[in-house]
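ok posting inputs for the pantoate job
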Amino acid sequence: MKVVRSRSEFAAVRASLAGPVGLVPTMGALHAGHAALLHAARAECAAVITTNFVNPMQFGPTEDLARYPRTLDADLAICEAAGVDVVWAPAVEDVYPHGTAQVTVQPGPIGDLLEGEVRPGHFAGVLTVVAKFLNLVRPDRAYFGEKDYQQLTLIRLMAADLDLGAEIVGVETVREPDGLALSSRNVYLSAEDRRHALALSRALFAGQARAADGAVSVITIATGVLAAEAGLAVDYLELRGADLGEIPEHGPARLLVAARVGTTRLIDNVGLVL
Ligand code: PAF
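and the output
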């Protein structure tokens, strides 16, 4: 496994790789959810590249950029075990050599919903850095977790609308045995926060189990589970179509939730068929 820092080092290594090439973009602080992305890429591609870069552009002024966990040594061990060929861990100046990007990728209407409403500018930051990495790495496939479902949806739209070439592959959310979705931000949770946080997946699964009864039942049951947990400040619970459009009468849909537990903001979602 090669670990490279600068653009020129990366370009030299990239030139030596035969395809198909799989890219797993990450912000480090890797856990079993990221490992699932790396394994999916390893199973389908001749070469696996992962980027390890905490992207300042996707953090709002009051968000957790400074305290975001940075665990490169542990990340490298996970990459090695997953059979990664190249880890690219650039500095901010390698990714944004001209300072913060002035020309950015705007997410369009889907970017104004859900996370976009609570985190203005977040998806422009995500899409801009993902577009840069797709252009710099030129992968055949790029892998993203369903845990960030709106992000995955927007990256798919961007790749299609801007003809970026790479196939965007979504990988199922990895959960703890008690249902908590794995997230790099789970390290912020105290034992008590963690107990409160379990209400997110409990609500989603309760809603999912009522899919056959229709949208109103799904929302009512999931809302009830969240309301019973006093330790949560819920930002949203929404049922939408699988493409994040309007709720279909019948067919694939997505139930999404975001809530704050103490000082930590968590998101989760599940698929269901109405
Ligand atoms: O999901 C993430 O970790 C980040 O948003 C991504 C896709 C690596 C872009 O910085």
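notes: Residues 2-171 form a domain with the Rossmann fold fold (CATH 3.40.50.620). The pocket of pantoate is lined by residues 25-27, 55, 58, 126, 129-130, 148, 151 (CB under 6 Å).
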